[in-house]
Every structure is written in structure tokens, then in C-alpha cells.
Amino acid sequence: MNKQTPLYPEHVRLGAKICPFAGYDMPINYAMGVIKEHEWTRQSAGLFDVSHMGQAIVAGENAAGFFSRITPSSFRKTPTGRAKYTVLTNDKGGIIDDLIITRMDENKFFIVFNAARKEVDIAWMKKNLPPKVIFEELAGNALIALQGPKAESALAKELPDANLSTLPYMTMQEASWKGPPVFVSRLGYTGEDGFEISIAVEKATALWNALLANPNVKPIGLAARDSLRLEMGYPLYGHDLNEETTPVEASLSWVISKDHGAFLGAAAILPQLASGVAKKRVGIQLTESGIAREGAPIYAGNEKIGELTSGGFSPSLKLAIGQGYVKTDFAHEGQKVEVEVRGKKIAAAIHGLSFMPAHTKPSSLKKAS
Fold it and tell me: What is the H or E stretch that residue 39 is in?
């Protein structure tokens, strides 16, 4: 039997189409439909239940060193309040998961990781946990995402003391809502300005409904969340990332700190930085009609050069897009290719991973390695 988030009764009440996802019964879309939900998020403010994702606190005198060992990113000089996107790597350099890690203070970090990888991630982190560092899963917290150009004004009405207008992108602050503390992070999975709010389970439904009382806010399901992230070129674990793929192959080399070599998997990853890789993750844009999905082969002439790992229709661009891995020799933007769909080859071209400009709020915190 699938699990349910604390907000599941609200999804049912709102008439959501419910489907299994990562072991949970989740809302795929509501009555408005996927395309309109996607467009609403780009134009106004979309509300997402992401409580299925994992949340945890890691604290101790060597917590920064711990994360600097199990990821390719260095956290030793990360400012308080700064959130970082990074990946957990295994001993062979493969990606165990991608996640957000936020420094709450000198020796305390807040992490959010993928629902389908909860057990794997927790086991891996506990296995590598050094002495005097504590791992605490926040099973008593729900997670709500509010995304879109009107997200700040909508959330500010509920958190008037949070100073959201001065909160930069990829940072977090602690606030309160009707008593209990909440963690408010300015980030998301859509490319729009927005927030993720970690709140006690017993207060989640009240906050969800308070936000929905704003006419600029509507509930958005996982289908639109997927099309929004695909337009931005963000990877989805289990599709675009896995334990056999390294950050260099996944076009995530930017998460690897330049002066950082003592992380798990470094022996495999650092030579790739120096010498290159055989395949790379790229964007794909179909240039004739058709929709290509995960697993579709990609050809250059008669040579198969890779395959799609994600694909679908872009409501913003009104065309089919995707991402996948191709041989590095063909991984330059504009390269003409073909994608095979049900035995038919459809004209396409290699594209940058992002198909849309990001509308996130600029960060004013000093950048640190």
C-alpha cells in the first residue's frame, strides 16, 4: 500500500487525479488540467505538495567536513543561510541522489532529498557519518512549495515578519506561522521565483488552505511540476541521473569545488574533469511534429548516439523537448539529430539543457566554495 502525505485529504477534496509516485499516492493534476497548471505557475503562483520528499537535520562539529566528503561540493566556507544543490556520490563516482543542503549555522545543516531515494540516502549518510555528528530525519515536517512570480506577495501575507523581499535565491531563514517555527527556503524546481516551506505536520493543512485562499494561488500537481522542470533542464533522479552516471557525464561539473579532491568517488570523477567523458547530458528539441519520451533512441545519420532520459511537451514553447545522453562528439548545440518514436525517426536538434530563462531572485550572499 502506498503512503500518503499529510495533505492527501486536501488533494482528494480538491478533486485531484491521484496516482502512485515514489511510494506515495500523489496528485498528478487537478480540474484545471496539466497545461493550465503549468501556465498558471509561470504567470502567477502555483502551490505544490512535496511532503513526500525527505527532510533531515545533520549537526555536529564536523558536519561541514562530512558533507564535503560525501558530495563533490565543499561546505567548509559556505555562509550561514546558504543553500547548495549538489549530489551524493558513491565510491565509483556514480550519483546516489541529488539534493539541497543548507547551512543553518556553523555546525548545523538542513537537507532535502528525493522521495524515491529516502531509504538509500539515509542508509548511505548514516554509514558515512563521522563521530560527534548526528543525523535526525524530520519525519514530523511537511514540505510545501509555492512557485511563480506572485509567490512572494502571497507568502508575505502569511509570514509578514519573514522579510521575504530581502531573502536571496538559494538561501533559507527561520520564521514562524501561528506558533511553530518554519524553515523558508527561496528555491524550487520550476525556474520561477518561489519558496519551499518546511512546517510541522499538524500545521500543514492550515497553511495550505490559507495560501489557497489567495486568488493568485492555485494547487498544482506533479505532472506540471515535471513539465516545468523539463523546460528548465533540471534532472529527475531515476531518469536523468542514476548510480552509474557521474556528475561530469550529467553536465553537473559545476557542483564540484575546484579545490576539492577528498570526496567519495573523486578517483573516478577528477580524471573525467581533466580528460573528458564519452557521453554527456544535453537538451533535445524536436524540430518536426511528434512527442518523444524516455528511452527513445537518438541518431546522427545511421549511428545511434544516445537516448532520451526525459521527454514531453513544453506548454510554454508549444513544442516537444527532452533531455538525454549522447556521445560527446555530438553534444554541441545545434547538432542535427533524429529521435526514433515507434519506429519513425523525427527530426530534432541538440539544445542547451535549459529551454527557458530562469526568473529566480538574484543572490546577494557572498559566493563561497
Answer: helix 34-43
CA distance 67 to 76: 9
Q: With beta carbons less than 8 A apart as the criterion, state whether 281 and 251 touch.
A: yes
Label residue 196 exposed, middle or buried (CB < 10 Å: 0-12, 13-18, 19+): buried
> How many whole angstroms separate alpha carbon 135 and alpha carbon 120?
14
To which residue does cell 538559494 refer? 170
- What are the start-end ranges of the H helices in 146-248? 151-158, 201-212, 222-232
CB count in 10 Å sphere of residue 268: 16
Cell numbers placing 51: 511532503
Q: From first to last of its 369 residues, what are the pLDDT tens digits of the chain?
A: 999 999 999 999 999 999 999 999 999 999 999 999 999 999 999 999 999 999 999 999 999 999 999 999 999 999 999 999 999 999 999 999 999 999 999 999 999 999 999 999 999 999 999 999 999 999 999 999 999 999 999 999 999 989 999 999 999 999 999 988 899 999 999 999 999 999 999 999 999 999 999 999 999 999 999 999 999 999 999 999 999 999 999 999 999 998 776 899 999 999 999 999 999 999 999 999 999 999 999 999 999 999 999 999 999 999 999 999 999 999 999 999 999 999 999 999 999 999 999 999 876 544 433
> Which amino acid belongs to residue 245?
T
What is the spatial distance between Cα 28 and Cα 20, in angstroms, rounded to a whole number?
A: 9
266 backbone dihedrals φ, ψ, rounded to 5°: -60, -35
Cell of 265: 568517488
Torsion region of 191: left, alpha or beta (phi above 0 gives left; psi -120 to 50 gives alpha): left
Q: CA 241, CA 243: separation in Å to the nearest integer?
A: 7
| Separation between Cα atoms, residue 133 and residue 135, nearest integer Å | 7
